[in-house]
Write a structure and sequence with these properties.
Oligomer: single chain
Helix content: 40-55%
Number of strands: 7
Number of helices: 10
Largest sheet: 7 strands, parallel
Strand content: 5-15%
Order of helices and strands: HEHEEHHHEHEHHHEEH
Distance between the termini: 31 Å
Structural class: alpha/beta
Length: about 300
């Protein structure tokens, strides 16, 4: 199947699934709790198409952000957060630098730990200021939404969906520590699926499989730093004991921005849909420049 046709088909399937959640006969009302950065840029394409189909889209986002800006086809509900634009820009810049750093596993692990520790507090405060914004939460309760559309890498959307007793659709590429596997009870054999930082493929000998299992412990340690505070925040807000995994397990549909042409094959569950084609918006390449300009 041609790449353009496949991408169009994936977007169409995604729109059908979301339209089904919102009701096919009439325009539904969708609450969007996004994650900033490139996550939002790929989500915007779907939201634009849903808006064209007559659905009402309400986006809840922090006033300080990088890419989430007002648009004519979206209703924006912004809320204050306790950091500045300069602090946020620096955090994203540091994140982009970290991706290209090289070194041994121990060096990369230490750098990742420091980066995660410094940035997770900022993202957690974003969620806290949303949940405890009484005026905004009152508006969300009174608005009678049909579903919540969110990026689970920031579990705030799932907390909101649970609080409002709404079905949710999650939109992601992958989650650290395989929380998406745990939440969906999807098989995740370490003899088959390479872990982060291992530089392994899906074809491993015995010693490589042992290494793959050992690396899981380090990944779960990092995840505990990031996601455990959300479990505590959700438990306090919902007034009952919950975990991030239990919240994610409530998601009705998982839209996965992966493509097995570029990524290793992995098991899937019935409510997982591959939509790799929406990662990049369609764009025609200019043929007017010369070979020297390419260099």
């Amino acid at each position: 199947m041609a790449p353009v046709l496949r991408a169009h088909l994936q977007v169409t399937v995604t729109l059908v699934l979301l339209s089904f959640m919102l009701g096919l006969a009439a325009g539904g009302k969708l609450l969007v709790v996004p994650l900033d950065g490139s996550h939002w840029l790929s989500m915007r394409e779907l939201l634009d198409r849903l808006s064209q189909k007559g659905h009402e889209i309400v986006v809840v986002a922090p006033e300080i952000n990088v890419h989430i800006k007002p648009a004519k086809n979206l209703i924006m509900k912004m809320y204050p957060v306790p950091f500045t634009q300069e602090e946020l820009d620096y955090a994203y810049w540091k994140m982009s630098q970290h991706v290209f750093e090289e070194g041994t596993f121990l060096e990369r692990f230490v750098k990742t730990y420091e980066h995660v520790k410094n940035t997770s507090a900022m993202f957690l405060s974003t969620c806290t200021y949303l949940l405890y914004n009484k005026e905004l939460v009152r508006y969300l309760k009174e608005s009678k939404f049909d579903a919540v559309f969110t990026d689970p890498l920031l579990p705030c959307g799932q907390i909101v969906a649970e609080y409002l007793s709404l079905p949710s659709v999650v939109f992601l590429q992958q989650m650290p520590c395989h929380l998406d596997f745990d939440a969906t009870q999807c098989p995740n054999p370490p003899s088959y699926i390479p872990r982060v930082f291992t530089d392994l493929t899906d074809h491993m000998n015995f010693l490589q499989r042992v290494k793959n299992v050992l690396f899981d412990f380090a990944n779960y340690f990092l995840c505990d730093i990031v996601f455990q505070p959300y479990s505590q925040l959700a438990s306090e807000f919902l007034q009952r004991n919950v975990t991030v995994v239990s919240l994610l397990s409530k998601a009705s549909i998982w839209l996965l921005k992966i493509d097995f042409v570029l990524q290793y094959p992995r098991p899937l569950m019935p409510n997982m849909v591959l939509i790799g084609g929406v990662n990049c918006a369609p764009k025609k390449l200019s043929q007017s420049f010369t070979y020297s300009e390419k260099l």
